[in-house]
Amino acid sequence: MTITPQEALQRTIEHREIFHDEMLHLMRLIMRGDMSPVMAAAIITGLRVKKETIGEIAAAATVMREFAHHVEVPDNAHFVDIVGTGGDGSHTFNISTATMFVAAAAGAKVAKHGNRGVSSKSGSADVLEALGVNIDLPPEQVAASIAETGMGFMFAPNHHPAMKNIAPVRRELGVRTIFNILGPLTNPAGAPNQLMGVFHPDLVGIQVRVMQRLGASHVLVVYGKDGMDEVSLGAATLVGELVDGDVREYEIHPEDFGLQMVSNRTLKVENADESRVMLLGALDNKPGVAREIVTLNAGTALYAANVATSIAHGIELAREAIASGRARAKVDELVRFTQQFKR
After folding, report:
1. Model pTM?
2. Residue 240 among known ligand-binding residues
3. Residue 21 is assigned to a ligand binding site
């Protein structure tokens, strides 16, 4: 029997779980625009209050993937997504975007899935535009970009058109809902490996187990204990790792990798242009905190992509990719490739 939106709402009020098939049905109603805005708002708020379960999140992500415009990448070897939930309030430059260039220079294939800044001063789409990248590519051209440059940027609105049905509700509610954590789970290129940053420590164990249910291969979900949705230099980082179907959780520290623990304060930016300057400085091998945090995150991404055998090995590869100039060259390569499709 299919659950009605009213029954689902009652279930959330009673702090009871919505089962997998029921959640699939409800999410399809929302994505098709077949649920009233009032009911959709009530249900996603109810889920947030009772706390979404791993099963509910996995079912919702499954439906979002169903409705996405997919990017076909035939070869999954060393294929990784580098993404954050955002919402960490740290207002740092785009570390995960800088990480993409380094990881690609060191041999990973990166499908970056991102949007404009919501909580941050500059989202991945904003800084890529500031660098001169054409972010507005359809799926076939993103696939060509990955094949040619080792990198592809998927601008979320182009790949998740059904989200327009819930966007006004989310905007008006103005609070975090299940949709804030679905973005990183719904990469349209289906990358089997992932480095995912999250905005809350509880999400480390939740998101890694959602990815386990969704059949991912090698995933590291990270939360810096200073509040960053990245691997942090300013504190220990909580890690949830999925490898060969098994999950383990642990902490890592900058000192484990010969890096100095240092505050992330100097990484704050006010806009996309400041983010661009800091990103290019790191890729130009300019000594400082920006370069070190990009190296640390790129090393972790290279481990997730199975290019490196450990985070420490990944950091060595990342340092070499930056020092050789290959990481910086990747920026120009992506700009050149994407600009040929400028309409």
Report:
1. 0.95
2. no
3. no
124 among the known binding-site residues? yes
- Concatenated DSSP letters for 60-122? HHHHHHHHS-----S--TTEEEEEE-------B--HHHHHHHHHHHTT-EEEEEE-S-SSSSS
Annotated ligand binding at 113? The verdict is yes
Question: Annotation-wise, does 200 bind a ligand?
Answer: no
- 116 annotated binding-site participant: yes
Q: What is the pLDDT along the chain (343 residues), one digit of tens a residue?
A: 589 999 999 999 999 999 999 999 999 999 999 999 999 999 999 999 999 999 999 999 999 999 999 999 988 899 999 998 776 677 899 999 999 999 999 999 999 988 876 555 678 899 999 999 999 999 999 999 999 999 999 998 888 988 888 989 998 998 889 998 998 999 999 999 999 999 999 999 999 999 999 999 999 999 999 999 999 999 999 999 999 999 999 999 999 999 999 998 899 999 999 999 999 999 999 999 999 999 999 999 999 999 999 999 999 999 999 999 999 999 999 999 999 987 6
Tell whether residue 208 is among the known ligand binding residues.
no
Domains along the chain? 5-51 (1.20.970.10), 79-338 (3.40.1030.10)
Q: Distance (Å, rounded) from C-alpha 220 to C-alpha 48?
A: 24
